[in-house]
Structures are given as structure tokens and as C-alpha cells.
Design a protein that fits this description.
mainly alpha; Arc Repressor Mutant, subunit A
Length: 243
Amino acid sequence: MAKARMLHKKISVSTQVNKLYLPARLLFTWMIAHADDEGRLKGDADYIRAIVVPMTKWSFKKIGNYLEEIKNAGLIYYWQQNGEWFVEFIKWREHQSIRSDRYISSLLPSFMKGTDDKLATNSQPDDNQKPTQDNIVQSKIKQENFNKSEYKEDADKTSKVINPRTFTPSNDGESIALETYKRLEPNNPFAFQATYLKALKRGLPLHLFGEFASQIEQDNSVKNRGAVFNIKVDEYFENRVRK
């Protein structure tokens, strides 16, 4: 694997990248240097912290949240296979030029297996190689099928989660959690229990629900409000432990 990678200056004005929470932006750019020649690396949180950001004190959960945010921004594939997590940069070939005599095939699985199989029948890619139209079409079909399977899994869970539309708060804490959910993620019913009621059960002070919500609403660069709220909650409890 190469010791260095290319980082195009247009990343500074990328809408996708700049919508990320600042730590997620840092993680995204630093992972580039550690990816193999096909833009892949192991995605387990302990591996990412040990290899990519060893000098930070980020928890494994926080790293997982950052990776999910980067994935939701459409910048990486982030998936689990045979009990292991993997990361693959979606636009790797657009931004990295690797000489054919230095190219080393990845030992990690590809998110788009069909694309990999087709590339394997060709010669190793040179600096100017671009994906064929057929590969692009197949990739889109696979992505659509993947999205449908995720939607089906979410739909299967609806009967197991608390529905915020029919939920009746029994105390001030639940009322504040519900109000915060409506402010930040009113179209994501799964988030109410998984994010806001969970924060309440963890003991997040009630005044911080509104404070965090206001900070997130005022930051136009935030794309995934729930992920940022979770990060702020984690940071609060981590700082409290240090004190």
C-alpha cells in the first residue's frame, strides 16, 4: 500500500464534505491516507482509532457515529460482512491516480462485488482508466437494491419501537425529549426512541436538550442532526467522567 495519497484542493469547497460535523470531516480526510489501492480499509472502530486517529480520545461509539455520518453523506460505503466492518471510498478512482506497475489489488472485499468481478477480467487500471457505462449501471442497480433492503429492515422494526406520533409523555423529561425530536428529526420515527429517549434514560440534563437542539439548528453545515445530537450527548458524558 502506498505511503501517501492525493488530496485534491476542491475538497475545501465540497458541499458533501462540508456538511459533515467537523470531526467527521477530519476522519474522512485522514482515512484517505490509509486506504489501499482500491480505496478500501477495515472499518472496525478499534482499528480506525488505532490506525487513523491514534492521538485522539474518541470513543469507539463516537467513531462509529462519524462513520455513519460520512456514509449518509454519500462519501463512503460502510458495511459489515462476516462479522467485520469495512470502508470503501465511493469516488476513489476519480481522485486517485495509481501507476499500473505499482498497483496492488485489494485483499479486502468490495461493496460492489459485481463491479469488482468485471474489473478483475481486465488489465490492471492505468492512470486514466474510468468505469465503463455497464459498470455504472450495475452499481446503481445494486445500490438501489441495497437501499430497498435497508428500508425493509426498518419497516420490520416499526412494530418494536415507540411511535412518537402516538406517544403520550408521562413527565417533563419525556415531553422535552419529544419536543427535541420534533425539532431535529420529525420525519425519522425511529430516532425518537433510539436517540432522544435514550439520552433521557442516560441522564442528560433537561436543559441540554434545548441547548443542543439550538446549536444544531443554527449550524447550516449539519446534515445528519440526529448523529450530531448523539455526538454532543457522548461528549457531555465523557467530559463528566473526566471531571
